[in-house]
Design goal:
Radius of gyration: 17 Å
Largest sheet: 6 strands, mixed
Order of helices and strands: EEEHEEHEHHHEHEHEE
Distance between the termini: 21 Å
Shape: globular
Length: about 220
Amino acid sequence: MLHVENITKRYPGAMRPAVDNLSLDICSGEFLSILGRSGSGKSTLLNILASLVLPDSGRVLFEGQDICAYPEKERNRLRGKEFAVIFQQHHLMPYLSALENVLLPFMNRLRPVTAQERRTAADMLERVGLAGKEHSRPGKLSGGEQQRVAIARALAKGARVLYADEPTGSLDSATGGSIMELLHSLNREGMTIVMVTHNPEYARQTHASISMADGRIVG
């Protein structure tokens, strides 16, 4: 599904590349975890896979198409439809309800949100275990519930690949475990998932894991 070929990314002023001549294949339906210390390049790799950051060299092929060569408008379309991204910090709008936060991907100034889109958003909240919390604002939700809203928002447009950057990093172990259960459930339904984590136990639960150091795969 994803073929990464000799990608390198160096940030201005850095002594070494954040990602250094890295190659990787990810199959459809796979749950892959990426381990590594801070500064190892794992988040940069995730951002390149999600087309949020372009490599300086190399290619990223999604179903055979080099997405690095896409114009920005096409990469935006890809992220809006095929890819979903969630972060450790869930970036919810504090003045919007849970339902309104999930509806954000549908919001377009040229037209109002449709009834079908509202149903889809409500279904996503139910899917992540938040039925009945549609009208709660983030400040009234626990950390785990806020992360579930972020996951529902990411999934609202029917993405096939989920990129998760430390989705349990700011949560206690019980809440983090419940988020992992949700990710495994989504994966069993066919979603391809790539997850950055510091937690070796969570990595052992995935189909495969890679370890990174100094921008390279070392294990």
